[in-house]
UniProtKB/TrEMBL annotation:
<dbReference type="GO" id="GO:0004693">
    <property type="term" value="F:cyclin-dependent protein serine/threonine kinase activity"/>
</dbReference>
<dbReference type="InterPro" id="IPR050108">
    <property type="entry name" value="CDK"/>
</dbReference>
<keyword id="KW-0418">Kinase</keyword>
<keyword id="KW-0067">ATP-binding</keyword>
<comment type="similarity">
    <text>Belongs to the protein kinase superfamily. CMGC Ser/Thr protein kinase family. CDC2/CDKX subfamily.</text>
</comment>
<dbReference type="InterPro" id="IPR008271">
    <property type="entry name" value="Ser/Thr_kinase_AS"/>
</dbReference>
<dbReference type="GO" id="GO:0005829">
    <property type="term" value="C:cytosol"/>
</dbReference>
<keyword id="KW-0547">Nucleotide-binding</keyword>
<dbReference type="GO" id="GO:0005524">
    <property type="term" value="F:ATP binding"/>
</dbReference>
<dbReference type="InterPro" id="IPR000719">
    <property type="entry name" value="Prot_kinase_dom"/>
</dbReference>
<dbReference type="GO" id="GO:0005634">
    <property type="term" value="C:nucleus"/>
</dbReference>
<keyword id="KW-0808">Transferase</keyword>
<dbReference type="GO" id="GO:0030332">
    <property type="term" value="F:cyclin binding"/>
</dbReference>
<protein>
    <submittedName>
        <fullName>Cyclin dependent kinase 15</fullName>
    </submittedName>
</protein>
<feature type="domain" description="Protein kinase">
    <location>
        <begin position="51"/>
        <end position="329"/>
    </location>
</feature>
<dbReference type="InterPro" id="IPR011009">
    <property type="entry name" value="Kinase-like_dom_sf"/>
</dbReference>
<keyword id="KW-0723">Serine/threonine-protein kinase</keyword>
Length: 377
């Protein structure tokens, strides 16, 4: 009977239709065979048989992420499979990530559903998100709609303000680690490099954050950074959303990365950055005079917010909480500031993702070719 079918079967059929996979269940006996393989009987959270792997989404040096389906409730999920070390067992970064994620309950932090451990792997089960910001920007070249950049940035800062209040540093913010739902919800993901910030101040590794999003103080060897580390990365992402390309896209290492930063912000001195010359990797020969072009000029108030986030002197950077109050976000409804932490800002009336220009153009072209009419304004 249909009512006795496992809850994931309907999701599986919808997924096959949505992704247009090469095989389909046109033969009833073939579908029945799959149902029998994944019979929904006595399945519990934490069991390796609780989830059906569908498709590999990405692969890193120590983990692979799959799209999957929960056989318990039929929900689509993301499965981050971490391979065990032959002699060391569970990687310490995975233990730290699990420990931190269990503490974080916020609408703009990816939700951890389950943890599964076997002899060979450790699997984190996350809520499923449609895409990530890097893919979204790749699909919409030339810069995002200003309203969408504003909405994404507000959600990013909202998530950052929360984790910083919890004394946690993400340490690896980049577009690939910002997940987006089909409705436009943005969630911070991948806490593999995250650390709890303890008191008194302690030192950390300077080998953190992908090069393009690494602040100049860390590039120069600083190890006593704080939440200002994440603010710099968020500022880089902000400019990239508006301009359509990374602002500091170095290719040959630390020296070139610093030169690209100085070319935009100007060369710092001891007057503008107290303690600069005492940093481990400081080299006076790198401090050449360079012109200072404008960061952002086509979006009102965006340049001021970007400049407050992308300040070379780390203690001079704006906090995530203060950035949320910046005038750049004044067009957004004031009700956004009353939304509970566990609730999405998209629940506020009128707050929604806007069609990107290239999407509108593609729809217009499609209408023209089909002989139909399309009006967008």
């Amino acid at each position: 009977l249909p009512s006795l079918q496992p809850p994931w079967l309907h999701t599986l059929r919808s997924w096959r239709c949505r992704t247009q996979r090469p095989w389909s269940y046109t033969d009833p006996s073939q579908e029945q065979d799959v149902v029998e393989r994944f019979t929904w009987v006595s399945i519990l959270f934490g069991a390796a048989t609780s989830y059906v792997h569908l498709e590999k989404l990405c692969e890193g040096s120590c983990a692979t992420v799959y799209e999957g389906i929960s056989r318990i409730n039929g929900q689509l999920v993301a499965l981050k499979v971490i391979r065990m070390q032959a002699e060391e067992g569970v990687p310490f970064t995975a233990i730290r990530e699990a420990s931190l994620l269990k503490r974080l309950k916020h609408a703009n932090i990816v939700l951890l559903h389950d943890i599964i451990q076997t002899k060979e792997t450790l699997t984190f089960v996350f809520e499923y998100m449609h895409t990530d910001l890097a893919q979204y920007m790749g699909q919409h070249p030339g810069g995002l709609h200003s309203c969408n950049a504003m909405l994404f940035m507000f959600q990013l800062l909202r998530g950052l303000a929360y984790i910083h209040q919890q004394h946690i540093l993400h340490r690896d913010l980049k577009p690939q680690n910002l997940l987006i739902s089909c409705l436009g919800e943005l969630k911070v993901a991948d806490f593999g490099l995250a650390r709890a910030k303890t008191i008194p101040r302690q030192t950390y590794s300077s080998e953190v954050v992908t090069l393009w999003y690494r602040p100049p103080d860390v590039l120069l060897g600083a190890t006593d950074y704080s939440s200002d580390l994440d603010i710099w990365s968020a500022g880089c992402i902000f400019v990239e959303m508006i301009q359509g390309q990374p602002i500091f896209a170095g290719t040959s290492g630390t020296h070139e990365q610093l030169v690209k930063i100085w070319a935009v912000l100007g060369v710092p001195t001891e007057d503008t950055w107290p303690g600069l010359s005492k940093l481990p990797n400081y080299n006076p020969g790198w401090m050449l005079w360079l012109p200072v072009p404008s960061l952002l000029s086509r979006v009102p108030a965006a340049e001021d917010l970007a400049s407050r986030m992308l300040t070379a002197f780390p203690r001079g950077r704006i906090s995530a909480q203060d950035a949320l109050l910046h005038g750049f976000f004044s067009p957004l409804p004031p009700q956004l500031y009353q939304v509970p932490a566990e609730q999405s800002v998209l629940t506020v009336p009128g707050v929604r993702l806007q069609p990107e220009i290239c999407d509108l153009f593609a729809s217009y072209r499609k209408g023209q070719l089909s002989g139909g009419s399309s009006k967008f304004w």
